Amino acid sequence: MQSPAPFARIGTRGSPLALAQAKLVRSLLSAAHGVGEDDIHIEVFSTGGDRSQDANVSLSTIGGKGVFTKEIDEALLSGRVDIGVHSSKDVATGLPAEMALAAFLEREDVRDAFLSLKAAGIDRLPEGAKFGTSSIRRAAQALRLRPDLNIVPFRGNVHTRLQKLADGVADATLLAMAGLNRLGETHRATSILDVDNFMPAPAQGAIGLAVRSGDRRFLDLVAPLDHAPTHARIAAERAMLAVLDGSCRTPVGAWTQEQAGTLTLKGEILSLDGQTTFRAEASGGDPQALGEKVGKDLLDQAGPDWLEQWMA
Ligand SMILES: NCc1[nH]cc(CCC(=O)O)c1CC(=O)O
């Protein structure tokens, strides 16, 4: 006998952070629609990003786009799951027309944390200290302040990285406060970094829900979970990133504030060594137009060949 179809099927990665996020979405869906949590299934997928993690391969080597989402996207489009739950910053710009990031939960702390068992802040690290990060944005921002730092590759889920820190693989690292908070590991942050020196990744700290664009039932189902101010901020930051080509080889930071429906978006692009920075800022009410404006301003400042010049 075939069991009845569940109310909804959620697709997620299997890391503790991804599972915590999927369970949060399940409980919110359950409350919003008055259905039991056991009627909302969580399906776990291993993505290319997860599989390459053990080998400590850098993400830029794998080649980026959707490396943490591809298998879930495919399951969504083929109808194996109905809702993909993602860290929005891991979702590529330029999604296929058949799928959409339809809702965003209220954004967590957008900032990065500094973590070290040896120094109270980045300025206190000894000359040439090992700075663990596989994020080209974090590496460039750290090198901008401390060109002497020795950047070492640092991948794996949050707990793996905390263990590597304890093992002395690096003297310090940066992690998103959002991830630490969602895992109940807030206390692991040595200090929280200011957004001017450490502008977060576009869309950092926001859980995004992907659904099939034409599937009215699930569009309606996730709608009550959408937090409009977060949605607007993420839309602006993703529009900016799309203009910059969304290359994961490009250090990009973004930070949006919202006040009474007006967004202010700050963006920056950096050279890999952190020694060149371009910044732009604008305000407006239309997230898409605002993001495109700031993105184009950054491209104009840097010149059309900036990618090639800096990445050569
Ligand atoms: N690529 C890993 C990743 N994707 C999203 C988060 C943090 C959670 C978030 O931004 O919502 C992290 C870990 C980190 O950067 O520390």
Automatic annotation (TrEMBL):
Keyword Cytoplasm appears in the UniProt entry: no
Coiled-coil region: none
Keyword terms of this UniProt record: Porphyrin biosynthesis, Transferase
Catalysed reactions, semicolon-separated: 4 porphobilinogen + H2O = hydroxymethylbilane + 4 NH4(+)
TM helices/strands, residue ranges: none
Annotated ranges, domain Porphobilinogen deaminase C-terminal: 233-299
Domain Porphobilinogen deaminase N-terminal: 9-218
Any one of the GO CC terms: cytoplasm
Biological processes per GO annotation: protoporphyrinogen IX biosynthetic process
Biochemical pathway: Porphyrin-containing compound metabolism; protoporphyrin-IX biosynthesis; coproporphyrinogen-III from 5-aminolevulinate: step 2/4
EC number, as in UniProt: 2.5.1.61
Miscellaneous comment text of the record: The porphobilinogen subunits are added to the dipyrromethane group.
Protein's name according to its UniProt entry: Porphobilinogen deaminase
Native organism taxonomy: Bacteria, Pseudomonadati, Pseudomonadota, Alphaproteobacteria, Hyphomicrobiales
